[in-house]
Design goal:
- There is one protein chain.
- The protein has about 80 residues and is of the alpha+beta class.
- About 40% of the residues lie in helices and about 25% in strands.
- The chain has 4 helices and 3 strands.
- The radius of gyration is 12 Å and the shape is globular.
């Protein structure tokens, strides 16, 4: 899979979030920013992303995924946002 494919899948399955995807093959780093994460625990945030990609993970199309999630307010001071 390509990062653009992973991004398209997430955008079609989770509303109101911005996704930044890096990686190749079946290993990806996902940074997700959105109001959907407001008030959720870190575990619930990750479950939201994993749930959206469960078919691809089960099929082996996606293997290793690292996930970082932020609310829009948290994203303002996130280290990954320094170059954006």
């Amino acid at each position: 899979m390509q990062p653009s494919e992973v991004k398209a899948l997430l955008e079609s399955r989770i509303d109101g979030c911005e996704f930044h995807i890096q990686g190749e093959g079946c290993n990806f780093q996902v940074v997700a920013v959105g109001e959907a994460f407001e008030g959720l625990s870190p575990v619930k945030r990750q479950q939201l992303i994993y749930g959206a990609l469960s078919e691809e993970i089960a099929s082996g199309a996606l293997h290793a995924i690292s996930i970082k999630t932020y609310t829009p307010a948290q994203w303002q001071s996130a280290p990954e946002n320094s170059g954006a």
